[in-house]
């Protein structure tokens, strides 16, 4: 029950999901956090109480805290309690909008890693002009975007296998193109890890390898899955998000500046609205943490009701698709080949 | 049977309270009108609960009245439906919709306040004095009407106050005169107790707090049974039979029932004393067919998942009676408010 807008946004998203049919049909929700605060929020919201259970956890790990220290000090924190409940089989998936580092650490401590990779990867999506797969997803998948800082070449290969499996299941893209993020398209350029990873990815039979791509090529959608180490991915995804937000801030400022610009923007507003919807992080829901035995979705800490609602939908979809098992299988066969 | 002492009166609405009825669109309305009695579907748990409440006991009986907003032309079908369910209402009133249309009283076709309040007072006039429990839903104005009726029976609203409320509610003058006459003759005995509002639309429970703790919004009839157990109107076995029926006939699982139980505790409708009593009664009770082993323990497990109640989470304050005119005014304002969707660069012009 962390996040900038918790508990209100999280409780509102769950209340809304409890009323929904479709993807959420028949799903029960377990809210973990300060029970009194969650009860007060639910009291004022339309919801189906048959599908919601509350579990009291008195503390939350704050955004400014060091994840490892906080987790060790506070076993009563909501993220720890939530992980324990999922581990005990009380729930099938974990969705968190709280401290991302603490959520990654708590999840990896509680849930086993699949497929012998030894590392989980946080996967984020980024909108591109190209659509892919049967689901016609207009998104590229980028991983790792911050589950860990560094990755060995074999781990980058594992990320490629996990990303491919995810794209096959979620985007229904039978042959996803995997690219390695680097500072050059040349296979011999980049850090030693990137050069070695290129070699591993290019000769792997289970991976449709596109080659290296540079940062500016991510938004062009050349690849369906972009592989990189966590530090690089985290920086890249934040730059991409920041650029989109800055563009709209500029448009908003221009709107109030001159009448002619206002008229121009009015004429373009339909198209701009579509672009805004596409680049709005709230529309994606959250980032799946791949490589664990349980489904884990991490939301942006700034997430509002809509983002958390979409994250819940993604979690349900991933549970129904038995994603952890599919990824375990992809890694088992893929890593033995590699 | 009629000579037996009446120990309790249960007053029910029909659509969305007893029957699962859709009349939100014209298509729903037509379909509902054409449904055969066999096709009509009950709200889960309602028939079992009603039978448990009316079960003859110690030479006394419970009285059941239904006051429905359905048109009186539906009577044969609805009476047949009651017969199929094994329910025998003592009073069954339907709305004279056709008469209202022919007389041009179109406000009365849609409005419920005048019709239901007048019917409640009329039935009360001719009936015995006994504690009353009311059942309605969140689709229309049941909470408002039932609370007003309870406050009239408790002497909490005077004639002038009632006149103003009826006036603001747009009740026709003839119906208003009838209500005021009945009110003048009304027994002021404070006999109206619990009011259950079935959340057919899953409305926020907070919406009903304006009527105070007497009104209990419920998601299902297992919750109603639990509150009646806390009120000592039911023993544990009937409550468990309602749960078993919902599992057997309506596909409920332990999780949904346990969540419903926890919801009542969170909203303070089940206190520590009732939970303790339930725990003790469960030890001495016979197993109820259809319920999985350890069912009550699963319910009680949900209590442990909640915050310790000492100190934190004080009971909400409420002072009655409700400001009925204020409620009507707020309702009117809400209906009149059209919220503009914010555009890309601010509010839509």
UniProtKB/TrEMBL annotation, chain B:
GO molecular function, one term: phosphatidate phosphatase activity
InterPro entries (UniProt xref): APP1_cat, Mg2+_PAP
Any Pfam family matching the protein: APP1_cat
Phosphatidate phosphatase APP1 catalytic domain location: 13-151
Top-rank taxon, per record: Bacteria
PANTHER family: PHOSPHATIDATE PHOSPHATASE APP1 (PTHR28208:SF3)
Listed name of the protein: Phosphatidate phosphatase APP1 catalytic domain-containing protein
Source organism of the structure: Lujinxingia vulgaris
Lineage: Bacteria, Deltaproteobacteria, Bradymonadales, Lujinxingiaceae, Lujinxingia
């Amino acid at each position: 029950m962390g996040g900038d807008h918790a508990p209100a946004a999280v409780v509102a998203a769950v209340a809304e999901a409890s009323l929904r049919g479709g993807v959420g049909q028949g799903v029960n929700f377990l809210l973990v956090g300060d029970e009194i605060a969650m009860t007060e929020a639910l009291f004022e919201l339309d919801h189906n109480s048959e599908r919601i259970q509350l579990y009291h956890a008195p503390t939350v790990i704050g955004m400014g805290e060091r994840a490892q220290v906080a987790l060790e000090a506070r076993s009563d924190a909501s993220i720890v309690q939530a992980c324990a409940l999922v581990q005990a089989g009380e729930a099938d998936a974990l969705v968190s909008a709280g401290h991302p580092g603490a959520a990654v650490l708590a999840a990896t401590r509680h849930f086993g890693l699949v497929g012998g990779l030894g590392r989980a990867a946080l996967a984020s999506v980024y909108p591109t002009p190209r659509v892919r797969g049967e689901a016609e997803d207009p998104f590229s998948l980028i991983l790792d975007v911050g589950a860990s800082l560094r990755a060995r070449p074999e781990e980058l290969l594992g990320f490629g296998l996990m990303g491919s499996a995810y794209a096959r299941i979620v985007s229904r893209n039978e042959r996803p193109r995997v690219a390695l993020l680097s500072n050059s398209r040349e296979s011999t350029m980049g850090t030693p890890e990137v050069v070695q990873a290129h070699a591993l990815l290019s000769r792997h039979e289970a991976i449709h390898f596109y080659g290296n791509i540079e940062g500016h090529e991510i938004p062009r959608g050349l690849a369906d899955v972009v592989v990189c180490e966590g530090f690089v991915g985290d920086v890249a995804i934040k730059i991409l998000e920041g650029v989109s937000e800055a563009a709209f801030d500029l448009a908003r400022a221009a709107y109030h500046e001159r009448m002619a610009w206002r008229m121009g923007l009015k004429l373009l507003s339909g198209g701009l609205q579509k672009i805004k919807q596409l680049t709005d992080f709230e529309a994606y829901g959250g980032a799946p943490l791949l490589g664990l035995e349980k489904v884990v979705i991490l939301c942006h800490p700034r997430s509002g009701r809509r983002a958390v609602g979409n994250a819940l939908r993604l979690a349900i979809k991933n549970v129904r698709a038995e994603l952890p098992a599919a990824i375990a299988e992809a890694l088992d066969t893929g890593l033995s080949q590699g | 049977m009629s000579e037996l002492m009446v120990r309790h009166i249960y007053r029910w609405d029909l659509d969305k309270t007893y029957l699962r009825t859709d009349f939100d669109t014209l298509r729903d309305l037509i379909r509902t009108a054409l449904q055969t009695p066999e096709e009509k579907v009950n709200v889960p748990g309602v028939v079992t609960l009603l039978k448990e409440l009316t079960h003859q006991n110690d030479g006394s009986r419970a009285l059941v009245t239904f006051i429905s907003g359905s048109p009186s032309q539906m009577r044969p079908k609805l009476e047949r439906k009651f017969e199929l369910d094994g329910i025998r209402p003592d009073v069954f009133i339907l709305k004279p919709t056709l008469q209202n249309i022919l007389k041009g009283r179109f406000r009365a076709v849609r409005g419920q306040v005048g019709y239901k309040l007048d019917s409640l007072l009329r039935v009360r006039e001719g009936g015995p004095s006994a504690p009353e429990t009311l059942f309605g839903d969140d689709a229309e104005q049941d909470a408002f009407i039932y609370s007003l009726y309870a406050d009239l029976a408790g002497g909490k609203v005077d004639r002038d106050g009632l006149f103003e409320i009826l006036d603001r509610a747009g009740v026709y003058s003839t119906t208003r005169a009838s209500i005021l006459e009945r009110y003048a003759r009304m027994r002021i005995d404070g006999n109206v107790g619990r009011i259950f509002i079935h959340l057919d639309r899953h409305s926020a429970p907070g919406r009903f707090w304006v009527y105070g703790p007497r009104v209990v919004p419920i998601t299902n009839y297992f919750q109603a049974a639990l509150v009646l157990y806390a009120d000592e109107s039911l023993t544990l076995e009937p409550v468990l039979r309602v749960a078993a029926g919902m599992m057997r006939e309506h596909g409920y699982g332990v999780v949904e029932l346990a969540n419903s139980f926890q919801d009542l505790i969170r909203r303070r409708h089940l206190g520590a004393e009732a939970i303790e009593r339930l725990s003790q009664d469960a030890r001495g009770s016979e197993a109820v067919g259809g319920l999985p082993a350890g069912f009550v323990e699963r319910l009680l497990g949900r209590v442990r998942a909640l915050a310790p109640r000492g100190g934190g989470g004080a009971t909400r304050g409420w002072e009655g009676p409700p400001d009925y005119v204020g409620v009507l005014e707020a309702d009117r304002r809400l209906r009149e408010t059209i919220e503009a969707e914010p555009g890309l660069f601010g509010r839509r012009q």
